[in-house]
Fold each of these.
Amino acid sequence: MTTVPTDLQTQLQTLQATGVDAIATAPTLEALEALRVSYLGKKGELSKVLGGMGKLSAEERPHIGALANTVKDALQGGLEARKAALESEKIQAQLAAETLDVTMPGVYTPQGRIHPINSIIDQVVDIFVGLGYTVATGPEIETDYYNFEALNFLPDHPARDMQDTLYLPNGDLMRTHTSNVQIRYMQEHEPPLRVVATGRCYRRDTVDATHAAVFHQLEFFAIDKGITFADLKGTVKAFIQALYGDVAIRMRPSFFPFTEPSAEVDVQWQGRWLEVLGCGMIDPNVLKAVGYDPEVYSGFAGGIGIERFAMVQYQIDDIRRLYSSDLKFLRQF
């Protein structure tokens, strides 16, 4: 019987010993994969050793082949065992890092509050929706036509001046009221209409205790056959009483280009009268601008200053407090 060459046998035994030790101490799955390729890959250490089997005789090859399989099984078994151990360690480490102590007290997060302006808007819209009105919206950047011309503003009306209106370089402007929604809505719908719209408005106004350059307004209007000023007065009274209860109100004659006759509504606030609402019967020229026949249809419209309603409801003495971001002030609501 031919003796197995000592050099190949020694190489295989050495390979098994060093490989098993290296695999057993592999620190990561990545390092373990590198060892697998290094020992068992196509160009790995085992393949290099077995490359010398071509020089063996037919009697010698079975002995070296059997030893090679033993070495391969030992290395493969070590790889599988170490992989299972590393994966288990990884899972345990992840569990330890993500474990929550449910007995620890939670982090306190203070509850948010609705800003007075948003609160008033929600209340007013709810009242008008309860009266059968539809909610509509419109753009804050507007053209002269929808903001002025279609609302019966004459070309030389003071509101068109730069000192009152914020104009943009392209000739558009920041809407000065939410009445632009009235024109846009009427162009797309036929009477009867009952609509309420709210949003920001912009004017070059001197900021003081009751005025702001950026403010919120709510527009309401109704158009149908046979609508009179008595319907407007009844709507205004029902709305204010729904919001404030039995408070003193008064209507004063006024003028707006888009209503005729027109009136301003005041409520008694801290011992004095505060203007909160402008209204009137929609001017026939406005009806004609959207294609309505003023001989058939009539309607009323009104604009509400949201900030001033908030001042009345929450007894705020200065409109600027609504935009101060003072937490001591806002936490009261």
Amino acid sequence: MNVETTPRRSDATKAAILEAARRRFAEDGYRKATIRAIAADADIDPSMVMRYYGNKDGLFDAALDIDLELPDLAAAVPDSLGALIAGRFLELWEQPPTSEILLTLMRSALSDDIVVERMQRIFAQQIMPAVLRFGDPSDAPHRAGLIATQILGLALCRYVLKLPPVVALTHEQIVADIGPTVQRYLTLGQR
């Protein structure tokens, strides 16, 4: 019986640590967040954080691990790709826990090189492969970079700076306005 409850308790402890870490990293940033503060937020001993995640870097990676779960663009109607991408990013930015993770990454990347590296990995591992499916592979980094500027600019204005006209936009308006721009970047150079 003890064998059955141990994994559950372990999973619950890990989940509490990750939730506390996400909040703490969001509030304090990577540099100021401490293992002790995260452990206190999770109501556990700091040694448990170290046991499960090794160090602050390991905890940060686990807490801010995100799968963008981009739609299969190869199966989509070609003229709808930009709208699909814009819609997917809105979903990610507005659904916990991804919304919290992305907000933490966005805020922290402005002041911390470790977070910048994390954002670059997400870009390279998840966005670039989607863009590589279209057009000339040699200009895929250029096109993916332009898409990132559009999506991250929208996120900065809507979720970090909370500019009233951008916050007031409905999902439909954003997809209708941003989708064609993302589409143009995705298929840049194609006819």
Amino acid sequence: MDRIVDISSDGLHLAIYRGFLTVSRGGEEQGRIALDDIGALIVHAHGTTWSNHVFVKMAERGVPVVLCGPNHAPVSVVWPLEGHYAQGARLRAQIDAPRPLQKQLWRKIVAAKIRMQGQVLAANGQEGGAFEMLARKVRSGDPDNTEAQAARRYWKALFGPEFYRDQDADGANALLNYGYTVLRAILSRAICASGLHPTIGIFHSNRANAFALADDLVEPYRPLIDQLVLNLISGGESSVSRDAKRALTSISTFDLEGGPGISPLSVQAGRFVHSLAVSFETGEAKLELPSLPSFLELSGLGRQPVGEEA
């Protein structure tokens, strides 16, 4: 099972030893994890030092190394040069994808996100039916910005009328930042494994954004993090603590139903990104999007965290 490894304590040294990532302080080993078990490595601690071998071994396995700022949002991702065996052909198909196809893909992604938002609201006793109607109204390319219309209703209904999404704020906003960073790492690895390039987005196209595609593809999964953060807050967590981070990294193991059956989010995300790569190659917008979890499954999100932290 792919694990999200979080380095949050200051003054640690990371190295590779006989197939393991080792974590040490002052020459004394604090812990280790098998390289083949790592799905992403997230670092946002002061004074972290590295063996260059760490980056080499992470790159060989297609594992993204995510460096975060003080607000727990990513500022850099170390990306491997080599990925899928058909990377060249898929990259050309991604670059050459016609605009109508990109618009159709974005419509499906936005509609899936809005439906997931509605499911989260309904699971928390709010009116979610209107979101199904909004999802059906999304047109190719979302020219009406239905995504923003849904967001204006969604945040207030879920977190209260006083809530504003602010990446630089503490509390729920900081928890959301960290959770979205975990999702971004999961999708980044899936993008690499599928032979696509993270900079070439479907909708996001800011020249300064090196991971525009990852930002596009996390959208259907974001409401799952929102629910997880709501569960943490209801349980008394108000900051990005050790326990909160463990709960948020557990999102990679959250079971989602799809075509082949039930599988962890990290596996389902891989199938989703693969379906995007095939869509670029065939010119048909057919995406394997995540199914809607039950209310019971949403209420249990993050209750039994299984992440790794040092």
